[in-house]
Specification:
It is a single chain. The protein has about 160 residues and is mainly α. Helices cover about 60% and strands about 5% of the residues. It is built from four helices and three strands, in the order H-E-E-E-H-H-H. The chain has helices at about 20-45, 80-95, 100-120, 135-160; strands spanning about 50, 70, 75. The model has no long low-confidence stretch (mean pLDDT about 80).
């Protein structure tokens, strides 16, 4: 008895498409980065994980008056947490298309990098420190920005080859 059709041992194996790999890597990377950013934003609202979280009427939405400290180290505020959650959702949504996922990594990396450098450059007590950002939070953001930018560039270079 001879086998014919798709189960035949002489049939060609499934054709592997490198475009599928590139789409998958881009989607998983933007989804993963988005999940980390959203998680950091959500954790910024949870007492115990974030010290000095107080939701009182009239509390500042942002600015250097916020005393909330994520993990007791990274200064945060409602505005900062909302920005992280929004970027996280954007990362998840961008994962549906290869181009938008790579674009999210590069543009999102530039945005996060801007806030990192801004946080390092601005005086902590100044009203210009609107997020607020301490040095530790700025260094964390700079690390996230570098990872995002490198991932976006590497995925773009792999796509061209």
């Amino acid at each position: 008895m001879t086998m014919t059709g798709p189960r035949s041992t002489t049939a060609e194996p499934y054709a592997h498409d490198e475009r599928d790999d590139a789409r998958y890597r881009s989607a998983m990377t933007s989804m993963g980065v988005g999940a980390v950013l959203a998680l950091l934003g959500i954790l910024g609202f949870i007492p115990g994980v974030t010290r000095h979280v107080a939701f009182k009427a009239g509390e500042r939405f942002s600015g250097p008056e916020s005393h909330a400290m994520l993990f007791g180290v990274f200064q945060t505020s409602v505005l900062s947490n909302l920005i992280l959650i929004a970027l996280g959702v954007l990362g998840a949504v961008s994962a549906f298309f290869e181009l938008t996922s790579r674009l999210f990594l590069v543009v999102g990396g530039l945005i996060v990098g801007f806030f990192a450098i801004y946080g390092l450059a601005v005086d902590r007590a100044s009203s210009a420190n609107f997020l607020p950002l301490n040095a530790d939070a700025s260094w964390l953001r700079l690390g996230i920005a570098v990872v995002m930018l490198l991932a976006g560039v590497v995925l773009s270079l792999r796509r061209r080859h």
